[in-house]
Amino acid sequence: MREGNYVRALSSVEPISFCPESWTLLTDHCLNPDCGKPLLWQKLDQVSHCPACKSDQRDFETAAVPMELRQHLKAWADLVHPLADRQSAALAQCHEKLRTLGRGSIFDLVPGLANLIGQPTSDKDHTNLEAIAGAMEVVLGWPEKMLAALEVDAEVSDVCQQSLSTRLRRYAQAPATLPEVRSLLLYDLANDRACSLGAKAELVSARRKVGGMGVREAAASIGVAPPYVTALRRAGILEAKTINRGRVRLELLTRKSCAAARADLEDRMSEAEFSHLTGFSEHAIEQLLSTGHVERLRTPAIDALFDRPMLRRSQAELFVERLRSRVFPLGRDDGDWIPLERAFTAIGGRPKPYGSFLTWMYAQGAHLRAPTGLDGNPDIRALHVSPFVLDRLSKFESEFGVVDGGETVSMVTAGEVLNCDAADLQLLLEGGRLMRSPDRNGLPLMQNVAQAAQQLISFGEINARLGLRERRAARWLRARGILPTLEGFADRPAVENRLGVKLPYGLIRRHLLGLTINKVSRGGAEVTDREWDLARAWIPRQRRSRRGVCDRSVLNAAIWVAATGRRWCDIPAQYGDPSASYSRYHHWKRTGTLETVYRILAREHRRKSVRPKAGSRSPYAEAGVAHG
Known about the structure:
By secondary structure, the chain is mainly alpha-helical. Among the domains are: 268-395, no CATH class; 411-496, no CATH class; 505-623, no CATH class. Helices cover 49% and strands 6% of the residues. It contains 32 helices and twelve strands. The strands form five sheets. Strands 1-3-2 form a three-stranded antiparallel β-sheet. The longest helix is centred in the C-terminal third of the chain and has 16 residues, at 593-608. The radius of gyration is 49 Å and the shape is rod-shaped.
């Protein structure tokens, strides 16, 4: 006991709480149970007796140091042993990097590591011997033992306390830590493990090892906004690995799952983008899908992010490129070409046949026209078709598919199918012809729209089928005794029996002769003397009008109006007074004379077998109509 106290007194080191010779625990209180007062010895020769009770401390038993701890505790105590050979032996056991620190710095490092690696005892004046022995074991196996302890702590990190790496960094940065110890932990140890101390550095290193990505990095990789990445994670499409470093927790997305999500999303194109490129409506896109011109892209990632399915971008871009190759600029002589959606107004009772029309156009090698855009190329968002397409509208196939009872359509699509505007749709809804869905959107049911399209025909469709520039559906219905079913609508079966699409003869004559509008305006489509001799025999004799109108001028004016698409008030002065000419024309049309004359002129054309000049592009090839 005396020798142990002597060693402690000479070393003047407070942390040593045991005798390295007798391996008993030292105490600074009297071991007499009746006393227990602090031992304040004034002289070293009196260290065996308590100054208060005079009891000999050697008469009392003290706790012994466990055998398994003595080896590492001895190595620690020998660092400050009075004997030089003991100091040298202890220092020789340490790593080369630690020898440069000096004995005192190594001795000071051990209690610091003990407080970090182990748990201190309840006694505030002493450090747990097991923790000191464990810290000395780490020092003797430096740096491998320290790196292993950090790896173990990273794997079993407790979220209720800081990680060992963070505690080491705080200890190294504390003001009481020796500068050489601070350098050892912050620089040398960081170089050995290729990672700095601290939770942030640990996470960066772990993230590099795992190969994961954060939300923003994953969003940039996939090509979506960060909230979409969160939605993909919640849907289970993106896999995540969680890294815990004490109280710090990081969730990283695996690169493999991000690459798979990017592959699912990179070939997508929204219907809005496709509509912006082509000008096709939602209903037109549905018809293109049904005929295979474009294709849906259905993937788990798309289903998780978007309410509506996407189009396959590669096929949609191929469709746009193919369509552009069939579109030519709309010239000055193409004033009679009709906007595509306006021409399709003459189709009712079924969906608009956009798909079958384009399929026929590609098969026939026909062309479309479009006005020139700002870039100097035809704008495919405003497609125009030849008037001769009207004669083939009934041949373009389209039909309603299997309609689910709860399927809804937008108001725009319903109006396009029924050939009516929003006001007419509202009348159908109020009249009970269309039913709204019971959910919040209140859109029309597709089943009712299909039924209404097969039962009703709108005045707009009747006008389109009578003539694109005429607006006389109500008068046409009255003349045939057909009563409107609703305001703006009539019974489709009754109208279909009396209605057909007929091209005006003037337009047919213009294409037969291969004339431009400018040539028609200069009188190129007027009847010849031979044709007039054949036709005038079928025209009832009338005296010449007081306003200078003759029958031949009226016939030429009717051909001019039909060939140019202009109004009667715009006819050239050489055809006489517009009002008088129109009155006679209307009389011929009402009595059937005009139809007879047109048949005679058409027969004369067939007899002469008039064809376009060699080397010129036939308008019938563009319209898909045979010559003759």
